[in-house]
Amino acid sequence: MNTVIIGAAKGLGLCLTEQLLNKGFHVAAGTISQTSGLLALKEKYGDSLLIFEADVTNEKQIEEGAKKCSEFLGKIDAACIVAGVLLEGDRTNLLHECDITELKKTLEINVAGPVTAVKYLFPYLKDGANVFLVTSEGIGISNCGTWVPCYALSKTAATKACGILNQSVQNVNFYAVHPGRMNTDMGRTTAQIEPEESAAGFCRLLSGETPVSRDCWYIDYKGNKMNY
Ligand SMILES: NC(=O)c1ccc[n+]([C@@H]2O[C@H](COP(=O)([O-])OP(=O)(O)OC[C@H]3O[C@@H](n4cnc5c(N)ncnc54)[C@H](OP(=O)(O)O)[C@@H]3O)[C@@H](O)[C@H]2O)c1
């Protein structure tokens, strides 16, 4: 299978890249940073892995990155947009107190970022391809908490983007996926699972081992329906 991961530097993205390579898939891994973890995968898996520059806030770079993916992979079977941020002030501020610069940055990376990736990957996706946007839990409109408000706003919007995308096109399926509360730099304080467990679930989603249907497009990493 030909797969694309964007946000592969560390955490879930890095684990997923490794597990897909381990399954024998070809992976184009987009990243801001050439981390030691990614370079070690290149060393081990060689020609099965393309590492390309992909800052989701840099439209030109994403456009060029998408072309590199298609040159490396041909048509793409599945893509997963993992890139995301939870900025420090958002862990303590209420929304009415938030740092507006942090709010804008969060929306730029977590909402405009995946939409930019989808826009430029779209021409290179196979008919019937599956695209997974890593969003979160707690995105409901009526069931509002106050914790990490900028992040929650952004993940609600990114989840809705999948619904809109599914209404917009028939030949590609979009899924918003809650990855679980993972023990990563982002999730360490609330972790319930290791990123390897989540990545294994994503691997089964990307490979089709866990069947998914576009009628149920907001799911968790095991493929279970999430409520919104
Ligand atoms: N951890 C959790 O409990 C949890 C729960 C729900 C949802 N999620 C979501 O799961 C995804 C993965 O999170 P994680 O826990 O693995 O977090 P993480 O370890 O902090 O990793 C986040 C990844 O996003 C990349 N990234 C950040 N800004 C980017 C940009 N502008 N362009 C491209 N890549 C960018 C980071 O690269 P650099 O390090 O190079 O910046 C890093 O590889 C995120 O979308 C997150 O919101 C996580």
UniProtKB/TrEMBL annotation:
An individual GO BP term: siderophore biosynthetic process
Record field: transmembrane: none
Domain of life: Bacteria
Classification via Pfam families: adh_short
A GO molecular function held by the record: oxidoreductase activity, acting on the CH-OH group of donors, NAD or NADP as acceptor
InterPro entries attached to this UniProt entry: DHB_DH, NAD(P)-bd_dom_sf, SDR_enzymes, SDR_fam
Protein name per its UniProtKB record: SDR family NAD(P)-dependent oxidoreductase
